[in-house]
Amino acid sequence: MEELTINIPLLKKEEAELTPTEATLLQKAKQATYRSYSPYSHFSVGAAALLDDGTIVEGANQENSAYPSGLCAERTAVFYAGAQYPERAVTLLCVAARDTDGKFTARPIPPCGGCRQVLSETEDRQKQPMRIMLYGTDGIYFINTAKDLLPIHFDTTYFLQSTIHN
Ligand code: THU
Q1: What pLDDT digit, counting tens, does each position of 133-155 carry?
Q2: Given ligand 1 and candidates 36, 45, 104, which is best to mutate, with the most ligand atoms within 8 Å of its CB?
Q3: What is the four-CA torsion angle of 68, 70, 73, 77, rounded to 10 degrees?
Q4: Is 109 a pocket residue for ligand 1 (Cβ < 6 Å)?
Q5: Looking at the 3D structure of the chain, how many domains does it have?
Q6: With a 6 A CB cut-off, is 70 part of the ligand 1 pocket?
Q7: Which numbered atom of ligand 1 lies nearest the CA of 60?
Q8: Distance 162 CA to ligand 1 centre (A)
Q9: What is the pLDDT of residue 166?
Q10: Domain that holds residue 75
Q11: Quick one: pLDDT at residue 154?
């Protein structure tokens, strides 16, 4: 038997330590929370994706009375980027959220499992890592690659290979 450990580097920055690009992206993610449609959870999430040509696309969570039909802010932004700019890579994705009190959360809100799977496959598709920037008023977390959010992930290459061989 062998016990293995996975270590994931996490960088924590204060708002004052952000680069101008990161600060701009944060501003966009915060603004996007005001376009959340979340009458059920009253939890407003905004995401801003920086593309490799400097374009920024934004998304916000969009809920629906048939609950599973809604979509998280991260996927809204990344799917929009894929639909509108399929040749561009997402290099940095920033997420911010306001809680039921309307205030930005103190702790960063980590993407849900479904979003992690989508972000991971987006990296495969674009053949380059996407940095993730999670905003909280107590600090901002940076993760180097979506893969770090989903260790031991389901890999598209397995799927494609098994599809081809079946
Ligand atoms: N939500 C996001 O948009 N992103 C996350 O990372 C976590 C959760 C949304 C889904 C739902 O609309 C609301 O927040 C409450 O879960």
Answers
A1: 999 999 999 999 999 999 888 77
A2: 45
A3: 110
A4: yes
A5: 1
A6: yes
A7: 3
A8: 32
A9: 47
A10: 11-165
A11: 77
Residue nearest to atom 4 of ligand 1 (CA): 72
Cβ of 123 closer than 6 Å to ligand 1, yes or no, is no
Report if residue 121 sits inside a domain. Answer: yes
Nearest CA to ligand 1 atom 6: 111
**Beta-ladder partners of 133:** 94, 142
CB 59 near ligand 1, within 6 Å:
no
Ligand 1 atom nearest to 45, measured from its CA: 3
Closest atom of ligand 1 to 38 CA is 12
Name the pTM for this structure. 0.93
d(CA 31, CA 60): 9
Separation CA 105–CA 57 (nearest Å): 22
Tokens of 65: 């009375």
Residue at 3 is within a domain: no
State the pLDDT at residue 158: 64
Residues of the chain where predicted confidence (pLDDT) is lower than 70: 156-166
**Any residues with CB less than 8 A from the CB of 134 and at least 6 apart, and which?**
94, 95, 108, 109, 110, 140, 141, 142, 143
Q: Read off the CATH number of the domain in which 73 is found.
A: 3.40.140.10
